[in-house]
Amino acid sequence: MTFAINVRQYPAELINMVRTTIIVTSILGIALGVAILVWPKATLHVAALLFGLSLIFTGLMRIYQAAVASFLSAGWRILLGVLGVAILAVGIVALFHPAESLYLLAVFIGVGWLMQGVGELFAIGSGAKHAPTALLVLSGIISIIAGVVMIAMPGLALVTFLWVGAIMLIAVSIASLFTLPKKVDATPE
Asked: Which residues make Cβ contacts (< 8 Å) with residue 119, sequence separation at least 6?
């Protein structure tokens, strides 16, 4: 997190508060990154539990939407309700079997990347001009490969993401410490 601060425009208290915020968030980021590297299984377990809670919340919201979406036809409301119950059930199972829910999460991510890659490749054929064709092809191929790897080797993919994410969190947190604004004396002159 970098803040470009002109010391003459802001009160000393604000500048010092920004300094303190950067220092605290950087230290927490470093600590979290190290904790992830030291306890990867525990971190994945917590991620699985959070995924389960997220599914439960999403399922409940779908059920609620099915109940109150009077502008939808009965068929759509039933479909939304059934989807909500299914998501809720998967979320409950994920809470009681967190390790298996990680594989489900990996497969969801993998399928999403596959769909994204295929979509980008189809965008080329449809004449989309939102990005250069070469970048769409490259992005599509990388997304498809990443999706296949995630689906074929979900455990390895998740652990790799965890390690890379932890290392990047530590690096960004350390880099943020080098961007601190100079401490300003808060006493009036």
From this structure: 140
